[in-house]
Amino acid sequence: MTGLIRAEIRKMLPTNLWWALLLPVAPWSLLVAWYGTAIGRVDMIQEITGQALPTGLLAMSLATNYSTIFAALLGALVMTRESWHRTVTTTFLTANPRSSVLSAKLVVCLALAVVYGVVNAVFGFLGGFLGGTLGSGSGGVGGLDQWLLIGGAGVLATVLWALVGFGFGALVNNSVAAVLVLVFYKFMVDVLASVVLAGTELSWLSSYLPGAASNGIVGNLAVPMFISEVAGAREPIVPAQAFQQLHAIFGGSYGFSWWGSALVFAGYAALLCGGATLLIRDREIH
């Protein structure tokens, strides 16, 4: 197994795939986080409370929700690029069983996903800091312990998206289809489904959609932290609408725990990776 992992590392590192997808994470996270400090009616909240707001906590959530797509694409392309370049036949024939090959690819993919998550956390923090102090001027970034929790949750969300991309890429076995479907689903289908479900008797289902569940990993930490910092001892009397409005922008669901969202999304990742393993084990290679 160690030899297979080394072989996958040697195949991955010289290529431009991993760093070409990593490069946009830094500026994207920074800009989205900076933008996140200026939305959600933070100026109005600041005027009402008369205090600086830890908008960086919310900004980190927004940055993570948008940046995890790069990890998903990495996971998908790790699986589909060998089919695209017609090298998968040699890989499977020289390294049996196929499940071991998949495991080695997955280990390398997850290690890179952790790097993506850390880069997102660092530049999301920087964007939240710059936006909170230079942009809207509405406040800071919260405490170190809060940022470590939110950053860690962001890394977890990034790793799970890489798993989802890995499993989906293995199932479709087509680079173009995998990229298009993942992007379209994350930024269109999941959002539209949540809008359609809102206000209906089935609105509770939106928290269990893949995109909403992944956003809740960080959002269900960041929003309660933000309100706790702003409201202080008055937190128990903060209306549910305040939570819901912030969740609608920064991710998550009112009354839903971050670890609950993580378990739901991990279930989707396990389902896709498990299905891919079963399919590839019996797939004909050419």
Walk me through what this model shows.
The protein is mainly alpha-helical. The protein has one domain (2-282). Helices cover 78% and strands 0% of the residues. It has twelve helices and no strands. The protein has helices at 2-12, 17-22, 25-36, 42-49, 55-84, 88-94, 98-135, 144-172, 175-197, 210-231, 240-250, 258-282. It is globular and about 65 Å long. The mean pLDDT is 83.
Describe the protein's topology.
Elements: H1 2-12, H2 17-22, H3 25-36, H4 42-49, H5 55-84, H6 88-94, H7 98-135, H8 144-172, H9 175-197, H10 210-231, H11 240-250, H12 258-282
Helix pairs in contact: 1-7, 3-5, 3-7, 5-7, 5-8, 5-9, 5-10, 7-8, 8-9, 8-10, 8-12, 10-11, 10-12
- The helix/strand class is mainly alpha
Rounded average pLDDT: 83
**How many structural domains can be distinguished in the coordinates?**
1
Shape: globular
* Helix-strand string: HHHHHHHHHHHH
Pfam families: ABC2_membrane_4 (PF12730)
Organism: Actinopolyspora xinjiangensis
Transmembrane segments: 16-36, 56-78, 106-127, 147-172, 179-199, 256-280
Keywords: Membrane, Transmembrane, Transmembrane helix
